[in-house]
């Protein structure tokens, strides 16, 4: 894929992820954070574009969501955590075999949950970091389920970015 085309796709998926996340935002006062649907965009980008695209969509959308939602203290942490989440997912999604895709979801979700627990603990206190785990696990489970539905729908219509075609 040409660089310009890939940059446009990354930009569009980032914008869609930010909009989707800001439409459905659920504040969590205990951690001074919130729960969104960002995982749907990040995992979909990782599935379609691999680790590099997953990293950039995760990093850019994570930072912008925090900026626009009024949580600027989280921008740097979200850039790193969601970027790594997208890169890890994209790495596993590029490998063949459904069990590796499942492993990608699990490992990438762990990167996000552990990353935010550590960041929250450093920024506020370890009890806040522990309190963030439940909400982030729920966010990832819901994000994985919606991503699987979206990918299945894209396969049915032979979405042009899908490499493997219908299954």
From TrEMBL:
<feature type="transmembrane region" description="Helical">
    <location>
        <begin position="71"/>
        <end position="93"/>
    </location>
</feature>
<feature type="transmembrane region" description="Helical">
    <location>
        <begin position="105"/>
        <end position="127"/>
    </location>
</feature>
<dbReference type="InterPro" id="IPR009825">
    <property type="entry name" value="ECF_substrate-spec-like"/>
</dbReference>
<keyword id="KW-0812">Transmembrane</keyword>
<protein>
    <submittedName>
        <fullName>ECF transporter S component</fullName>
    </submittedName>
</protein>
<feature type="transmembrane region" description="Helical">
    <location>
        <begin position="40"/>
        <end position="59"/>
    </location>
</feature>
<dbReference type="Pfam" id="PF07155">
    <property type="entry name" value="ECF-ribofla_trS"/>
</dbReference>
<feature type="transmembrane region" description="Helical">
    <location>
        <begin position="6"/>
        <end position="28"/>
    </location>
</feature>
<feature type="transmembrane region" description="Helical">
    <location>
        <begin position="133"/>
        <end position="153"/>
    </location>
</feature>
<keyword id="KW-1133">Transmembrane helix</keyword>
<keyword id="KW-0472">Membrane</keyword>
């Amino acid at each position: 894929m040409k660089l310009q085309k890939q940059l446009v796709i990354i930009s569009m998926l980032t914008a869609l992820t930010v909009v989707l996340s800001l439409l459905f935002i659920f504040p969590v006062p205990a951690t001074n954070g919130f729960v969104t649907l960002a995982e749907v965009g990040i995992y979909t980008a990782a599935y379609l574009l691999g680790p590099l695209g997953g990293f950039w969509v995760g990093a850019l959308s994570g930072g912008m969501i925090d900026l626009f939602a009024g949580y600027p203290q989280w921008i740097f942490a979200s850039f790193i955590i969601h970027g790594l989440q997208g890169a890890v997912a994209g790495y596993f999604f590029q490998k063949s075999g459904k069990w590796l895709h499942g492993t990608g979801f699990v490992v990438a979700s762990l990167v996000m949950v552990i990353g935010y627990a550590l960041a929250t603990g450093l920024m506020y206190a370890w009890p806040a970091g522990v309190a963030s785990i439940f909400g982030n696990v729920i966010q990832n489970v819901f994000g994985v389920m919606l991503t699987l539905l979206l990918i299945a729908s894209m396969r049915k219509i032979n979405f042009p970015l899908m490499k493997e075609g219908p299954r």
